[in-house]
Amino acid sequence: MTTPSAEERHQQKMQKHKEKVDAAVARAQEERGVLIVLTGNGKGKSSSGFGTLIRTLGHGYKAGLVQFIKGTWDCGEAKVLGKLEGLTHVVMGSGFTWETQSKAQDQKAFDDVWPKAKAMLADPDIRTVMLDELTYMLAYDLLSFEDLEQALVNRPAQQNVIITGRGAPTALRELADTVTDMKMEKHAFKAGVKAQAGIEW
Ligand code: ATP
Ligand code: MG
Question: What does pTM read for this prediction?
């Protein structure tokens, strides 16, 4: 009996892998929108969400983006996304919560923007809605989980939602279809590298 060559071993391994992938693809037949939660302390939550919005828009679908903090920042992504056809972009007015230092002012800013987010979550023409940094609205008690849950469960069946922000609560993780917890291994800022346009915002 001859031993299989490296090429044959590779072919057999890939064949097995392909069978597993094909079986998994065949199993996943349900067609509906998904709730994606991007949380954790590592970098990459918002930028992953923006990338997914670009995918949605690239296929000619409409998308919505609501940015709950950093409203006063001059974000690079917003400049490009705002130029793309099919995107509705809303920014919460107050900027960073730790800068306003007023719960009443934050609540007012949130109450102004939340109906616009809810309108997106009720619009079947919007394929993907991104609620950027929404977890802080829950953490600061500006939004109750019940209100959020109601809007999410009643949304159109084909609509996708992306929620970003650190510290996503357990109930939101449980409601989600896809959860990614970004783990920080290193961050340049911690080594003293100044935040820069084009990378951080
Ligand atoms: P990005 O917008 O780059 O995808 P993010 O959405 O995952 O980052 P946020 O928690 O929203 O991260 O913070 C936004 C800003 O803080 C970005 O400028 C990012 O580079 C920076 N940042 C992210 N993670 C860390 C960290 N662990 N330490 C310091 N700064 C961080
Ligand atoms: Mg972010």
Answer: 0.88
